[in-house]
Amino acid sequence: LNKVEEKELTPLQEALSQLIRQLQRKDPSALFSFPVTDLIAPGYSTIIKRPMDFGAMKEKVKNKYYQSLEELKEDFRIMCENAMIYNKPETIYHKAARKLLHSGMKILRPVRGNGFYSKSP
Ligand SMILES: COc1ccc(C(=O)NC2CCC2)cc1-c1cc(C(C)=O)n2cccnc12
Q1: Whose CA is nearest to atom 21 of ligand 1?
Q2: Which of 34, 57, 67, 73 has its CA at a distance of 20 to 30 angstroms from the CA of residue 82?
């Protein structure tokens, strides 16, 4: 019988998944859950060179792309900064991104890599 082996999550994957869940609670309208398309945001793909969203971050955790907490933090920052670059300051998206960045950093800043996972010695 082909046994479906359940995917054991590594401690890092567990920690990163938990952090993303906490961060997503700060985005109740799910404006950052999925990729921004050129359809809803004209010219987006020409302006924003490194698109990022929570779905992509979860995929990267699943594929063991992240080697450290720092790399997740960087993607989170890029995601928020993209929204503050593309959307004018008075838009709900720019304001939501600024708010998300601040509340998200309160969650991520105190989280200490235990040294084992961070690349830098
Ligand atoms: C996955 O992205 C989205 C998903 C849903 C919505 C959405 O529900 N917009 C309604 C709230 C007022 C229209 C908006 C967005 C959205 C995010 C963004 C970001 C993050 O820049 N955005 C920019 C311009 C236009 N729409 C958006």
Answers
A1: 83
A2: 67
Q: Which residues contact 21 (CB under 8 A, 6 or more apart)?
A: none
With a 6 A CB cut-off, is 85 part of the ligand 1 pocket? no
In angstroms, the CA 95 to CA 8 distance is 38
By alpha-carbon position, which residue is closest to atom 17 of ligand 1?
Answer: 31
0.80 exceeded by pTM: yes
Cβ proximity of 105 and 22 under 8 Å:
no
Handedness of CA 36, 41, 43, 48 (dihedral sign): negative
Would the ipTM clear 0.90, i.e. be above it?
yes
